[in-house]
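G., the chain you wanted modeled:
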Amino acid sequence: MLDPRKSEEQIKELRQKAMKLPLSPGVYVMRDKQNEIIYIGKAKALKNRVSSYFGSDKNHEEKVRRMVSNVDHFEYIVTDSEFEALILESSLIKQNQPKYNILLKDDKGYSYIKVTKEEWPKVSETKTIENDGAKYLGPFLSSWSVRQTIDSARKIFRLPSCNRVFPRDFKKGRPCLNYYIKQCSAPCRGRMSHDEYMEAFNEAMDFIKGDSSSSVRELTKKMEAAAERLDFETAARIRDRINSINRLKERQKVVASKVKEQDVIALAQSNRYTAFEVFRFTGGKLTDRESFITEEAESDSESRSGFIRQYYAIRDRIPPVIITDGEVADHELVEQMLAERREKTIKINIPQKGEQKQLVEMCRSNAAENLATHMGNTGREASALDELKRLLGMEKSPEYIEAYDISNLAGGENVAGMVVFENGRPLKSAYRKFKIKTVEGQDDYGSMREVITRRFAEYKLKQEDGTEEPAGFARLPDLILLDGGKGHVAAIKPIIDDLGLDVPVFGMVKDDKHRTRAIAVSGGEIAINSTRSAFTLISKIQDEVHRFAIGYHRQQRKKSTVQSTLTSIEGIGEARAQKLMKHFKTIKAVGEATAEELAAAPGMNKPAAQRVFSFFHET
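Predicted structure as tokens:
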């Protein structure tokens, strides 16, 4: 669907201009009506790449559609090679910062550890050195590593992280939560001596300046000395600190790598945003991590390629190995570009199993969490959608999912339910009920065909009406799920194809215990039990659509039973029965009504009212 802001005539003119471009490598520059550069790209063949933007937009992602809708004209630069185009593209993006390219803000800077100069000193992370008498350690390149180290030291040695000043604030308030979860000794209570505080503080500084192994050795000596003095209280306190350090070391092993120096890069995408996560390993340990949110108009592989080039343009260290969670467009050219900067070879790999695969999955989960926070939903939901996207081989995460189920009893009272999940959550305002009109008997395939045909006939109608804000049936789903197997998919897919719609259709298969087992495609099944987040989401959707459809079916059966009760009364046909139910709401209210109240109801007269009254009051 073309953006309403961009007429078909404008698109046609841009395509005609693009078709005149040479089949040479080069860089193209998209500009808006104000002549501002909004996107810069490179191409192996300029004619093919640029013209693809101005053809049918059904193959474009939403981000690309938004970019194209703002293009007024474009320029191009021919280069001698694709590699030269890659270098020029990166340079122009850095110079012009176009809106729809991946743009990374270099706010890394240096971090320092600040130790305040006061009677009860505190330690914190800061970006600046001030003339305040405090002692500053650093600079450190990784602010994340500094924060992690300080946070760990505070928890292990139970130091305060609040803004209270001691001894001024002794006993002026209740201890905070950290005291009750044993992450602070709460000197604010006034029961901790200055010597005890300074002992813990100095041990924390040794931990920060040194490493965990040397801290354990020193603390062990102190613990043994205290035990020899029979000072068991001190020995127990030191033992607890040693145990905390050892637990920290065990957690760190989870994010350790056998490859001594490498970066791990993963992404999570929505229709509008892309979140990137970078884990940086030095000496086999996770020493830094960074998160970025961008809004650009590229596919996953192009996004990875653009991000890697931009990221290492603002970072001094390029590792010998970069592992990613998927394909990187032009990865050989990107490797060559980074190798020239590093003056040594580098490799971009996609791990398939083992430790490296686990690191990529962890990195991707953090990207999904970051994306979810930015969009206002939970990390679990974003992770499930991203997982489902990959499982089904989709280009983008299915933010808007429609699911359908048929319900009947021995072919009677055929109905269907449609539920909608937006961003992994039920959108109940978009739920719809269908009463099957053209199918008699138990024909689930035929019923499903009728429902899908009616649903997308409404979509086409609303498109013709020029609805600007897609909602309800005017909105095209990112994914359709059917409660059933490959037969249901095969029955529905031709309808979607005939309408010229690009909407993936899959089935939800249950086992003999009515539990979700697999995803059905027209040619077979995709197992989902190994993908926990996607499995949970699909199970939730399948249970919800089944509940909704069967609830509607029971409602219709009850209504049918009630109406058949009334039509068994002489002189009460279908029309009068419906009017009575509409007026009195329930069969109980009809039975409790007086003859006068019945006669006053729409469509009734005194003889009919008397017969209804007698039916319910005969002894």
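Residues 117 and 132 are 8 Å apart (CA to CA).

Shout if anything looks off.
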